[in-house]
Amino acid sequence: MRVLRTSKGVAGRWIVQPRRLVVAATVLLAACTQTSRVDDNISTAALGETRKAVAVMRVGAASPSCVNVAVLLGVREGDGFRRHQGITVANVRSITEPAVAEVELDPGEYHVLAYRCQNAAGTVKTLDDNAGGGQLYRTSYASFTLNAGEIVNVGYLRLVAWRHGHNAFGRPVETEIEVTDWPLAELDRFKAKRPHIYAQMKTRLMTVTAQGPGEPGPQECARLKTLQAEGKVQQLPAACQGPTTARRKTGAVANRAVPL
Fold first, then answer.
1. How many domains does the chain have?
2. Is residue 223 part of a domain?
3. pLDDT at residue 88 above 60?
4. Which among 16, 56, 76, 226 could bridge 260 via Cys, Cβ 3.0 to 4.6 Å?
5. Distance (Å, whole) CA 175 – CA 6
6. What pLDDT score does 242 carry?
């Protein structure tokens, strides 16, 4: 199980500033929504020949009102991320159909950039950190890597967001992101519905993205000390002030303010 934890031990909790919790129509959730699927006869051998891969993702419902959900995948570009492809799960709360999206992609690293929920009335709400309404996004919520010839179950993505507290610029949205293995019932349902894909897939869970800078490592501390000596930095982080430099923590421990 991959979980982003804050210093208070809460799974993947972020405070995000309220730029937008979009309520609008979206190309990812059209009127006739269908679950994203790959060809029934796809094989790892054929994928290897064409230098392609397949990601399989169980997507959770962020709210009881969600009927159809979508996830926007992107790729890294500079300091941000560029949108690449959306995947959709129709009737996400079905007890007969697996709430699983499948997508064929080139090998590489992919990031979860947005989550969208459509209710029964057709209203769509979007959670993202878009950089000005274009193709670029500031924040990756989770990531995974694919190699050619693979069919990879990247895990069960669960997201919860709610308005929190008070702020002079609006109420921020608090978000929890969690990635786990699928429930056993979901594995059994997917095996029954998509046996050919199930037989070939292997599980490699997405990594929930740590937000915030974290503690500096030895190299960063050395550079900060040099900059301090040059008068470019006034104060050293606590991790750089002791007799031994603290190593960067491997766990994701962060609260980061990002616009929504």
1. 1
2. no
3. yes
4. 16
5. 12
6. 74
**How many other C-beta atoms lie within 10 A of the C-beta of residue 95?**
7
Q: Would residue 248 count as lying in a domain?
A: no
Distance, in Å, from the CA atom of 81 to the CA atom of 130, rounded to the nearest integer, reads: 9
DSSP 6-30: -TT--BTEEEEE-S--EES-BTTB-
Among the listed residues 103, 51, 42, 49, the one whose alpha carbon sits nearest the alpha carbon of residue 74: 103
pLDDT band at 134 (very low <50, low <70, confident <90, very high): confident
User: What is the average pLDDT value for the chain, to the nearest integer?
Assistant: 81
pLDDT digits (tens, 9 = 90+) for 210-229: 765 667 888 999 999 999 99
CB-based contacts of 98, cutoff 8 Å, min separation 6: 58, 186, 189, 190, 193, 194
Note whether 154 and 56 are within 8 A (CB): yes
Which structure tokens are listed for 253? 């421990």
For residue 18, give the nearest of 173, 126, 132, 127 by alpha carbon: 173
The whole model's pTM is what? 0.74
- Specify whether the CB–CB gap between 73 and 28 falls below 8 A: no
Torsion sign (Cα): 91, 93, 94, 97? positive
What is the Rg, in whole angstroms, of the alpha carbon atoms belonging to the chain?
Answer: 20
- The CATH number for 182's domain is 2.60.40.10
- Domain carrying residue 183: 2-215+254-259
Reduced to 3 states (helix: H, G, I; strand: E, B; else coil), residue 190 is helix
Integer Cα distance of 211 and 140 in angstroms: 9
pLDDT at 190: 97
Question: Is 234 contained in some domain?
Answer: no
- Please indicate, yes or no, if residue 243 is contained in any of the structural domains: no
Whether 197 has a pLDDT exceeding 90, the answer reads yes
